[in-house]
Amino acid sequence: MAFLQADNLWVNQLADGVADLVLDVLGSDLNLLKPAVLDELERALDAVARSSQFRLLMLRSSKPASFCHGIDFNHWAELARSDDFVALSQRGQRLCDRLVNLPIPSVALISGACLGAGLDLALACDYRVALTNGSTQIGSTEVDIGLLPAWGGTQRLPRCVGLERGLMMLLGSRQLSATEAKAWGLVDELATSGDEPPRTFVSSASKRSLGKLPRRTTRQRLIESNPFGRWLIYRGTDRLLRRRLPEDLPAPWACLETVRFGLKRGLEAGLNRETEALGELSQTEAFRNLLRLQLGRAALRLAHTDVDSKRTIRKIGVLGAGDLGAAWTHLAVTHGCQVIIRESNELALGLASFGMMALFQQEVAKGLMSREEMMTHLSKIHGTSAWREFDEVDLVLDASECVRDARQTLYREMEKQISPDAIVAFTRGTSSIAELQECMKRPERAAGLRLMDASGRRPLVEIVATTQTNERARRRLSDFVISLGRVPQLVPDLPGNLVHRLLFPYWNEAVLLIREGFQPQRIDETMVFFGMARGPLEQLDELGLDVAAQLAQSLEATLASRLAVDPLFAWMVENRWLGQKSRIGFYQYKGRKRKPHAALVAQLRAESHVAAPHQIDATPVAEQRSQIKRRLVWMMVNEAAHCIREGRSPGPDELDRALVHAGWAPHRGGPFRFARHTGVEETMTALDELADALGPRYAPCDGLQKMIS
User: Fold this and answer.
1) Dihedral of the CA atoms 34, 37, 40, 45 (nearest 10)?
2) Residues 139, 19 share a domain
């Protein structure tokens, strides 16, 4: 019989005086903290503290994949005023103090994800034990939503693992495996099973407290143990943040200042500063935008739990195993699917197999997966130069590079081999789905699936549907994309679809900036500093200039009335300067290093219509960045409105959500939210001034003012 039973947890009395507090949040496969759960935790800890029959508390989860994922995003969204966030922080700190001040020692038995406030709870325990089951992840995630740990994490984590390592976890969102956590001193012991409490702690546990910074390593003893060494760490962290952190993202700075304040003034002062900082950050635009992003992802994940198993896509055929085919294969097998790769001959199939092996070995070398996981994933990939097993696939992904006539022949042959229920999805971004459907006997099952980059790193996947594509195919593809941990976006079958259509004028403008004298690296670093995942020229090299040239050709009619497509794209293809795939584009690539393509820059400057492009080099860097940002950001805002008018997105909010998942600065919320935050009057004034200076490509789109009002 349980010592205490509640909706979201229970406390059992185990042998030898052990209180087993099991967290099991009702109605979810994750342990997420919300007011009802906090009420029960407080009641349980008070009951254990009052009882004289216990000598040890063990805190664990009944959910193998979730020790505790932290505060429920929906609860964050319910809070509005700064005082509400301050009150939540103070309540969380009091809850952690209950653990710290228990009359008996406590042990956190960590299995699965221990993130955010879940880590704060674990840090408040006297001991921590992690299960080596592969799913254990321990980290601080609040900075990812524009906040900071506010239940004591900024103070206890550095005192547990050290200042330098603590800052890596707090500011860099570094998540540790069980083995890494043991090496860093975050956990005291590793275990293989959570069925019984660790014998060491059962027999000899005692209360202990965090004091000063640890001195486990030589570096900690020599540097972190003295004020000058800590000053060096703070200065180095400050420089790193200035170099890598996007502007208008205050949470990392507040977190760094809070850590520094607490280590200088003491734990109690640090906790108070932590609470104040949370209240201030809760009112920032960055937090609201990042929270909205997380809420959207959580809603997608929840929707996927209700998917009918009969609609689930588990076996996939991939036509062509080039870069794009390899990206889809990697995504599929790492999310539990089986893949059959079809190539035209045995040689091509052998090269494809070698390429997949190399791709997985790179991930093993980077520590992203174990060798055992690699072998498991590779065992799910099979190859054929015929159509073996294609009668069993749920989905065919066409990543081949066939010309139109050859593809029509291929599709006619393919349809004879696959089942009537199988979906066919074309993955390359420059072909019309309607044209492909013309050569199919069953066009209603055909659609497009578009990654935003060849590596598949961006969360957004465009689902391109025509009027012939049936609803069943659309739903199944959407469920499939969500199962891959990606975000689906339904878009019409128009040139460039949505994201590339919006981005192309931005890329075109970046080329014009080079012609005017701006250096490629300055253009890219400016937009990364704004918050973009990649600069425009980096994106073009990653996409491939051959793809960009095809995109330019397909969009020329759409854009002709407002802007001229720069001939550079076609010219670079003629010179075989294709970007990363040819190791030379706007940059020259050698191994992991790159440098601007000097010959290309010189050629563009020589062709420039600007009287003295070299004068840009003498302009202060801050002024250069201001000009670049002004032109490129307002170009995207205006093109976003044009995309709405062209029917590529249902509305501003949907477009913002898609762009953020495709690499737009997440803390700015998308082009329309950025314009609203800037202000209607300032937005329209900026575009009018740019149009007067640079021409009709900046003329405000009809309806833009209403879209951002």
Assistant:
1) -90
2) yes
Within this chain, do residues 398 and 488 fall inside the same structural domain, yes or no? yes
More confident residue, 231 or 301: 231
Give the residue ranges of DSSP H helices in 438-498: 471-483
CB 158 within 8 A of CB 259: yes
Give the span between the Cα atoms of 450 and 456, in whole angstroms. 9
> How far is it, in rounded angstroms, from Cα 542 to Cα 449?
18
The answer on pLDDT for 78 being more than 60 is yes
pLDDT recorded at residue 197: 58
Residue type, 396: V
Q: 524 and 487 in one domain?
A: no
Q: Considering its fold, how many domains does the chain have in total?
A: 3
- Furthest CA-CA distance within the chain: 87
Q: Is the pTM of this model over 0.70?
A: yes
Q: Which two tokens stand for residue 532?
A: 């973009």
Mark which of 476, 492, 508 sits at the end of a domain. Answer: 492
Rounded Cα gap, residues 387 and 391, in angstroms: 8
In terms of domains, do 318 and 284 share one?
no
Provide the pLDDT confidence category of residue 306 given band limits of 50, 70 and 90.
Answer: low
Element (DSSP H or E) covering residue 553? helix 545-559
CATH code (residue 347): 3.40.50.720
SS3 340: strand
Q: Which amino acid is at 480?
A: F
Based on the fold, state whether residues 465 and 596 are members of the same structural domain. Answer: no
Q: What string of DSSP letters covers 613-681?
A: TTHHHHS-HHHHHHHHHHHHHHHHHHHHHHHHHTTSSSSHHHHHHHHHHTTS-GGGTSHHHHHHHH-HH
Coil, helix or strand for 297?
helix
Residues 633 and 674: beta-carbon distance below 8 Å? yes
Range of the domain at 140: 4-288
* pLDDT tops 90 at residue 66: yes
Q: Are residues 278 and 319 in the same domain?
A: no
3-state secondary structure of 308: coil
> What single string gives the DSSP state of each residue in 389-433?
TGGG-SEEEE-----HHHHHHHHHHHHHHS-TT-EEEE--TTS-H
**pLDDT: is 418 or 605 the higher one?**
418
Report yes or no on 296 lying in a domain: no
| Token pair belonging to 38 | 């906090």
Q: The CATH number of the domain where 233 resides is what?
A: 3.90.226.10
Question: Per residue in 227-238, is it b (16+ CB within 10 Å) or e — as a string?
Answer: eebbeebbeebe
pLDDT in tens, 391-430: 999 999 998 877 777 777 888 889 999 999 999 999 987 6
Structural domain ending residue among the three candidates 253, 288, 323:
288
Residue 648: inside a domain: yes
Q: Indicate whether 324 and 466 sit together in one domain.
A: yes
- The SS3 of residue 365 is helix
Are both 545 and 396 inside the same structural domain? no
Answer yes or no: is 301 within a domain. Answer: no
Q: For the residues of 72-119, what is the DSSP string, one character each?
A: -HHHHHH--SHHHHHHHHHHHHHHHHHHHT-SS-EEEEE-SEEETHHH
Q: 19 forms bridges with which residues in the sheet?
A: 13, 57
